[in-house]
Amino acid sequence: CQWNGSDGGVIQRYIIYSQSQTMRLCYTEVRRVVMVQQRQTQKTEELYSSQVIFYSLNKKFSMYVQCRIELDEPIDRNQMQKAADETISRYPYFRVMLSRIGERYVLENNDAPFLVYDDPEKPTLEPDKNNRYLIRISASGTLLNICFCHALTDGRGIFPFVKTLLYYYAVQQYKIDPQMKDVRLAVEPVSEEEINDPYLAFDASSADMASLRENQELVFRLPDQDDPSGTYFIHTFHTDCKGFMDFAHNVDGSPNALSVLFLYRMLVKLFPEHAKDIVVSVAVDMRKALGVSNSHHCSVSIIPMRYDERMTAMPTDKVETVIRGRII
Question: How far apart, in whole angstroms, are the C-alpha atoms of residue 307 and residue 215?
Fold first, then answer.
């Protein structure tokens, strides 16, 4: 994505992708404490939800997402720190830390300094190295990295935070109003829509949890090995945003569905003997379906997509229509 400000633009490109290490899931009822700012006063609200995914408090803090933003000039970290201070004051539900109480993981308010670090290439959410926050802002050179735990929010949930941060950085660094639309400012109260719990709209009382069958259907897995040192690798590539979006539109696809199709076709070329066994998962934002369009909570669900021989033989535009139909 590109943002063109009144002065010709600050951001060259915006990339979001996830990096995952050893993942340990904890399905539990969660007591969440959120500070909700009012115009003159402040109150505390407790939100309850179930079936929320949280991750273990270990050094391999898993399933976190990076938003990498490259500016067209070196970042002033002092000014970025001022922008971060303004920004986190607007999002009290992100000013939290993950604590363990008995067998539960609980989000609690975090009063520690919210710092800007200098490791955008290799950020960490290890609690002791991040003042126990679940969000980390790093800046060095022209690279800005907003890293966050996927249990706290998702790509759409973090985007208003990113916009507010960029807004205040432009104000601090360039002494101008960047004229960005739909930016949440520090002086504004937090709306009820932002803290709406998507799981309150979903009744799971009668849902049957899936169980593993004795004769499990074969699912292809990449032939990799666990690295005992915990080393992980990030592979990135750059592509023209407009060209990719135009192509997705022309084949009746979406960026999400098209990326999944390309991934599948790549795996089939590398491992043709497993063409019938490959399942690629599609991430789907459930906010609209649950009626919580502006909620900051992680509202992503995963749809497994198995490709059969019929879909393999289809042209790109037709298979994209099938994928989008399955998602809908």
Answer: 20
39/190 Cα distance (integer angstroms): 9
Enter the tokens of residue 1.
């994505």
Token reading at 18: 């996830």
Q: Does the pLDDT of residue 21 top 50, yes or no?
A: no
Measured between alpha carbons, how far is 66 from 117 in angstroms, rounded to an integer? 14
Percent of the chain having pLDDT more than 90? 33
- pLDDT tens digits, 137-165: 999 999 999 999 887 899 999 999 999 99
pLDDT for 224-240, tens place per residue?
A: 555 566 565 556 667 78
Give which of 21, 25, 46 is closest to 36, Cα–Cα: 46
* 151 Cβ neighbours under 8 A, 6+ residues apart: 52, 53, 54, 55, 63, 98, 134, 298
Q: What are phi and psi of 124, to 5 degrees?
A: -135, 145
CA distance 189 to 42: 10
**Rounded to an integer, what distance in angstroms lies between the CA atom of residue 30 and that of residue 27?**
9
Rounded to two decimals, the pTM is 0.72
Distance CA 229, CA 232 (A): 9
Please report the pLDDT score of residue 45 as a whole number: 34
Contact predicate 299/284, CB 8 Å: no
DSSP notation for 235-279: ------HHHHHHHHHHTT--HHHHHHHHHHHHHHHH-GGGTTT-E
pLDDT score recorded for residue 247 = 93
User: 143: Cβ–Cβ under 8 A, 6 or more apart, which residues?
Assistant: 68, 69, 70, 71, 75, 120, 121
Which among 193, 81, 69 is positioned nearest to 141, based on CA atoms?
Answer: 69
One-character DSSP codes across 169-181: HHHHHH-S----T
Tell me, rounded to whole angstroms, the distance of Cα 67 from its chain centroid.
8
